[in-house]
Amino acid sequence: MELEQMLSTAAIIEENRVVTHTVVIGNTVVLQETATNKEVRYTLVGPREVNPAKGKISAVSPVGKSVIGKCVGDIIEVTVPSGKLCFQLIGIEK
After folding, report:
1. Do the domain assignments include residue 6?
2. Is residue 11 part of a domain?
3. Which of 23, 36, 60, 91 has CB atoms 3.0–4.6 Å from 30's, for a disulfide?
4. Would residue 88 count as lying in a domain?
5. CA distances from 86 to 44, 45, 74, 79, 83 (A)
6. 34-70: per-residue pLDDT in tens?
């Protein structure tokens, strides 16, 4: 039943070959933590494709929701259980 429900609400997302300047699902984002200058790289995926070990995070996770629609250079604040994290978006990759 769960599979049937998932298939009934699924939508095909055409690959966008146009370069976008804002983050969308499917993009890989490069973030720099402002406090430590540490860089992290995440690919935004659907909730069922999440694999943190491979850098795949959900677009509905705290970080994912915070970066959707943002542009390179934007500062992103993310509220996580341990407090707030602050990142600068330094790259968007297809």
Report:
1. no
2. no
3. 91
4. yes
5. 18, 21, 11, 9, 10
6. 999 999 999 999 988 999 999 999 999 999 999 999 9
Q: Rounded to 10 degrees, what is the CA torsion of 48, 49, 52, 57? A: -90
Burial (CB count <10 Å: 0-12, 13-18, 19+), residue 18: exposed
Q: Is residue 14 part of a domain?
A: no
Q: Is the CB of residue 93 less than 8 Å from the CB of residue 19?
A: no
pTM to 2 decimals?
A: 0.78
Residue 25: CATH number of its domain: 3.10.50.30
Residue numbers of the domain that contains 50: 19-93
Which long-range contacts (C-beta less than 8 Å, at least 24 apart) are formed by 75-78? 75/34, 76/31
Tally of structural domains, the chain: 1
d(CA 12, CA 23) in angstroms, rounded, equals 19
Q: What confidence tier does 73 reach under pLDDT thresholds 50, 70, 90?
A: very high
